[in-house]
Amino acid sequence: MKKLFFAFIVLIFCACGSSKKKVTDTGNGKEAPLEKRLADFMKVNDEMDFEKVMDYTYPKLFTLAPREQLVKVMKDAFSSEEVKIELDSMRVDTVFAVFKIGDGSYAKVRYSMNMLMTLKNDKDSAAADDSGVDYVLLSIAEKYGSENVSKDLKTGVIKIRNTSDMVAVKDEYAKEWSFVNLNKEDPMINKLFSKEVLDKLDTYN
Questions:
Q1: For residue range 48-105, what is the model confidence (pLDDT) as tens digits?
Q2: Measured between alpha carbons, how far is 167 from 50 in angstroms, rounded to an integer?
Q3: CB-based contacts of 6: which residues, under 8 Å, 6+ apart?
Q4: CB-based contacts of 41: which residues, under 8 Å, 6+ apart?
Q5: 190 CB-contact burial (10 Å; exposed 0-12 / middle 13-18 / buried 19+)
Q6: Residues paired with residue 105 on neighbouring β-strands, in sequence order
Q7: Taking the model in full, what pTM does it have?
């Protein structure tokens, strides 16, 4: 399970799906390239093409975790023998204004979705019985908030409602717009971006 949740902590931003979205207008006419790149990014995610997803992932991330390893983690997560995971009601809610710091261009992107988790029936798996489901439910509720986690009593499916942010970035590492999850609790984010960039992203709410 640790490996599974590591995949989502690092790369859950990949699960963006198409929908109506609000774009904060900067008045400079430069949103279109970002919007096109984001639309392409969503398309390869809808197709669950993890190799292509990496083409849209911020390349600096690969200096911390090899691309091949991240692809394997994603594939393992969706093909786990313990848990079936589906993504539902995925949408990009807001693309905030683009800003520049140094030679880099950045924008915060807010997205939301539902994640459906089903513990597979396995007579050798303690997680497959009711107590296992309830234990997983409590663990997830601690992370996402009990108000955002529920269980279908008939099917046992755990539903997680989640709203998150990611960073769109174009700089010396990324010649085209690339994306990475903005997880403030993950120390990795401080290795990817300067304090100045992170502080600026914090101003967009």
A1: 788 998 999 999 999 988 899 888 888 877 767 778 877 777 788 999 999 999 999 9
A2: 19
A3: 73
A4: 16, 53, 56, 179
A5: exposed
A6: 100, 170
A7: 0.77
